[in-house]
Amino acid sequence: MNPPELSVVVPVFNERDNIPPLVGEIVAALRGRAAFEIVYVDDHSKDDSLAVLQSLKAQVPELRVLHHASQSGQSTAVRNGVKAARGAWIATLDGDGQNDPADIPKLMAARDAAAPEVKLFAGWRVDRRDSGSKRWASRWANAIRARMLRDDTPDTGCGIKLFERAVFLDLPYFDHMHRYLPALVQRAGWKTVSVPVAHRPRTTGVSKYNNLGRALVGIRDLRGVAWLITRSRRTAVEER
């Protein structure tokens, strides 16, 4: 079997009601446009998300399901999904349904029109559909991150992204790394582009994050990523 052109990786934790409609939207957006697979990673959900995913496999041949033996967080789920993926390019979506899969072809079109050194196409939620407190916290966090990392990215927290699998797997791995992909990809010597995408309100389930907890972890992570950037050394390699 030939590998797919694209692997759509979706991490989930307790999102049983969001899974069927999101899978249907991914299929509607991509079937007939590209050879693709969908790789869901269940982060040891406490509800029946895993059972819902397993039941969908009979209806959606593109669907693959991974399950964490213990809860490990979104970055680990994304990384394990990318490691298991068979496509050379990866699209990621949050499992809560707030990202619109119809934007994946838009990111692919941006990739096809871009220079070959651009390896990450990051979604940019120009019209956030979150609460006022979440939008305020995001603006505050983005301003601090941009000042410290100078990654020229207006929205690193958007879950919908398109990137080359090999480039991602070459990045340093740590918990919460998914929030710093533009800076990490740039550190590796590649370029990134932000693409405006849709954002939708959550219709079911609850958010897995709170503003204070995210801020406290983010401060430590920012310092770590800034340190990684200062310690980066790159050079061209020639075989002779």
TrEMBL record:
Residues 7-168 form the Glycosyltransferase 2-like domain. GO terms for molecular function: glycosyltransferase activity. Keywords: Cell membrane, Glycosyltransferase, Lipopolysaccharide biosynthesis, Membrane, Transferase, Transmembrane, Transmembrane helix. Its EC number is 2.4.-.-. The keyword Glycosyltransferase applies. Pfam families: Glycos_transf_2 (PF00535). InterPro entries: Glyco_trans_2-like, Glycosyltransferase_2, Nucleotide-diphossugar_trans. It is an enzyme of class 2 (transferase). PANTHER family: UNDECAPRENYL-PHOSPHATE 4-DEOXY-4-FORMAMIDO-L-ARABINOSE TRANSFERASE, UNDECAPRENYL-PHOSPHATE 4-DEOXY-4-FORMAMIDO-L-ARABINOSE TRANSFERASE-RELATED. This is Glycosyltransferase family 2 protein. It comes from Pseudoxanthomonas kaohsiungensis. The lineage of its organism: Bacteria, Pseudomonadati, Pseudomonadota, Gammaproteobacteria, Lysobacterales.
